[in-house]
Amino acid sequence: MDDTPDNHPEGGDDHAVVLGAGLAGLLSARVLARRFARVTIVERDELPEDGPEFRPGVPQSRHVHVLWSRGLELIERLLPGITDELTAGGSTLLETPRDFLWLSTADWFRQVPGARQLVGSRDLIDWTVRRAVLREGEGRIRVVAGRLATGLLAGADGRTVAGVVLRGGDGPAAPAERLAARLVVDATGRASKTPAWLAALGHPAPAVTRYDAHLGYSSRTYAIPKGPERRWQGMYVQGRPDSPRGGVLVPLDGDRWMVTLIGNGEHAPPTKDPEFLDFARRLRSPALHDALRAAEPLSEPTGFRGTANEWRHYERLDRWPDGLLVVGDALCRFNPVYGHGMTVAALGAEALDEALSGLTLREIPAAARRVQRRTAAVASVAWQIATSEDLRYPGTEGPPPDRATRVLQRYMSRVVVGANADPAVSASFFGVLSLSAPPNTLLSPWTMLRVLSKWRLPSAPSTSRYPPHHLPRETA
User: Fold this and answer.
1) For residue 285, how far is the Cα from the chain centroid?
2) Fewer CB within 10 Å: C terminus or N terminus of the chain?
């Protein structure tokens, strides 16, 4: 990094740079375009132009993705009409759990109220959102694809951020490019280099909290088979500590199913045939295996193992450079089995929008530390859900649960028992799970009374092989 005054680029006063063209980066760029005359999104991958495609920077896109109602609502505010665009492209809006066969850790969910989800391929979601962001940006946003950021530009005082350095674009010998900016936002996900870049500015690395339940994924797509009328659109067979294997099935565009098998540690699912189908057969219910037996595979199984929860605590640093923010998975990432990543990205964009409200362009860099703390706070509920649930598994690596976490775990086991059949408890449970309601919703006197009234019911019982609403309508 070159921080000598005579190498400082000019012309960045009305310019913001966002590193990363994933969902967190795209939504951040949309927010910044309301305040900056120019916003540049820098993405190391080449981006598809003609339609959704897989790209290496989003390896988890080959697995099931859900966008909870709260996240969809916030993205709709930033990009009016995006819900219609996503569903027109093949994404599906489902009511959870009513449209699912869902075997929870306790029992099958009955037809109780829950929350809305958008399910679809991550490639489609990113591509659709990117088009909408560029359209709504009204010429203020541009994308520089196939370029890698290699460092931060320091301001004249050597402690502030004044832009980024990009690797040369015409081969390894090409000179680096300096891109001046009043604000730099790191949304590069788990590959973020910000800790090393902060060190180059003389700042300490952030403390990191990490919990790893060693969850493994294996996914493939199937053609949806013709057959009897189904009373469900998706399926979720959850694992639990005494049976740490699960599976989820959701519809995709093109009359396809996406099926993701899940397992902890030595129970990680296979990535080859015929073991994939055999793993599905050995879940707590044979319902998922039954659905797949007559389905034609359209892809080979693909594995994914990077599922640890990890929080880089930038918000705790005593010193923070002006002009820098870290968002999305670069800040905090979660075990994806809970489906919170995209919704937290939307919550982060909302927090960014609110934190910048009323600030002038000149005031924004100096407010970066306060904005960083505010955007980090939105991850706390999803973090609590993911880590407290992962700590139920004996092989989870990370700080041991404290007394409060153990009490919460026991109470939440009772909540799930109630939510399976009690509409009032179910509505509160899914309000919190979808990040639409605060956690204390589950601690209201009325909810606690209903939850504790079922204390005699076992929290991890033997369950029926099929739910009552599994069979075709005419024979149910």
Assistant:
1) 27
2) C
